[in-house]
Design goal:
It is a single chain. With 149 residues, the chain is an alpha+beta fold. It folds into 2 domains: 64 residues, lambda repressor-like DNA-binding domains (434 Repressor (Amino-terminal Domain)); 60 residues, Cyanate lyase, C-terminal domain (Cyanate Lyase, Chain: A, domain 2). Helix content is 49%, strand content 18%. The protein has a two-stranded antiparallel sheet with strand order 1-2. Strand 1 and strand 2 form a beta hairpin. Helix 2 packs across helix 3. The protein is globular and about 50 Å long. The protein starts with a helix and ends with a strand.
Length: 149
């Protein structure tokens, strides 16, 4: 018996390693971006029934695991307040160093509000460079202004 969504993500990761599955292949199979699909497989998004069944086929999941894929997850998966994984820590560092700049520039351009992480998309690509390949990340979120009342 599966007792958490995290268990399903662990099964998916183990199967991914054993079978050599790429996230882009999973995304192609269900017709969504590799970024959203990866987040869903890692337990941060919920699949609809058709998507969950397709993921279940790819990773040879039980019916119970497929059902867990369709439940709205508890979002936010970092095990500590300050991440210890070096790659994730660098994102934490980016927000610490540039967060106030991002906030200031968004407010200057759009006004008082936030960038949605719900009405949101992300694109991660390899950018060839003679000095060493670069990671190109584009985040796009709907601007949500604060209302007066």
């Amino acid at each position: 018996m599966i007792s958490s969504r995290e268990e399903v993500s662990t099964i998916i990761m183990a199967t991914k390693v054993v079978k050599g599955i790429k996230w882009s292949d999973v995304a192609s199979a269900i017709g969504l971006s590799k970024e959203w699909t990866t987040a869903a497989c890692l337990g941060q998004m919920a699949f609809d029934k058709t998507q969950a069944e397709k993921v279940g086929e790819l990773f040879e999941l039980s019916d119970e695991a497929v059902a867990w894929l369709q439940i709205a997850p508890y979002k936010g998966s970092l095990p500590t307040a300050v991440p210890t994984d070096p790659l994730i820590y660098r994102w934490y560092e980016v927000v610490n160093v540039y967060g106030s700049t991002i906030k200031e520039l968004i407010h200057e351009e759009f006004g008082d509000g936030i960038m949605s992480a719900i009405d949101f998309s992300m694109d991660i690509k390899r950018e060839k460079n003679e000095a060493g390949d670069r990671v190109n990340v584009v985040l796009s979120g709907k601007f949500l202004p604060y209302k007066t009342y």
